[in-house]
Amino acid sequence: MTIYFTTIFFILVVEMFVFCVIVLPLPSRWRRAMFKFASTSPLVDKALNTLRIIFGFIFVLFIDAVNRLQRLNEHEEESHHDHSYEESLKASKFYAQRNLYLTGFTLFLSLILERTSSLVIAMLKKEEELEDAIKEHVSSTQDQERLETMETTFKNKITALKVEVEELKKQEKDIENLKKQIAQQTEEYNQLRDRHESLKQKQA
């Protein structure tokens, strides 16, 4: 296996490892921290740009493997009586198929990784939005309960003030009655005093 196909095999192994890490049932906090680092780190961004260039070369090698396999199939259809040539042709076909599968699976897994990572990122964003909505709902519920408590308190205060007003009205009525009684008693006292003075004058 040549150096570039060895490199492609290494990339395929790395992709399989990354895919396993993505699909592992990790806690949401760890997964969120991992994807946040991957989406904000400049090193990861540079690595992704480099990988895109590498995948371009892998795609070229994939096309080359397809063309080579087609040429080998055409040669295989021709009748050859040389046994060593047939063995060499089969070996070349085997290597071409190996290169085709290796590059094809690497490209296919790269597409799956990109789609899976985008879905996971979207899911994490929805989870954050859901958590924010739950927090807002809890805070709004607490605010509503606090408002209801304040409303009940104000109602109780208003009821107490109404009772005090009624008591004050009763006291005011009692005071007015007392004033009337005092006025009547004063008038009666004045009348009695006048009678008493008139009796004194008659006796004198």
From TrEMBL:
It is a multi-pass membrane protein. InterPro entries: BAP29/BAP31 (IPR008417), BAP29/BAP31_N (IPR040463), Bap31/Bap29_C (IPR041672). Keywords: Coiled coil, Endoplasmic reticulum, ER-Golgi transport, Membrane, Protein transport, Transmembrane, Transmembrane helix, Transport. Residues 157-201 form the Bap31/Bap29 cytoplasmic coiled-coil domain. The chain crosses the membrane at residues 6-26, 47-66. Residues 1-132 form the BAP29/BAP31 transmembrane domain. Residues 151-202 form a coiled coil. Pfam families: Bap31, Bap31_Bap29_C. GO terms for cellular component: endoplasmic reticulum membrane. The keyword Transcription regulation does not apply. It comes from the Eukaryota. It is found in: Endoplasmic reticulum membrane. GO terms for biological process: endoplasmic reticulum to Golgi vesicle-mediated transport; intracellular protein transport; protein localization to endoplasmic reticulum exit site. Its main location: endoplasmic reticulum. Belongs to the BCAP29/BCAP31 family. May play a role in anterograde transport of membrane proteins from the endoplasmic reticulum to the Golgi. This is Endoplasmic reticulum transmembrane protein. It comes from Rhizopus delemar.
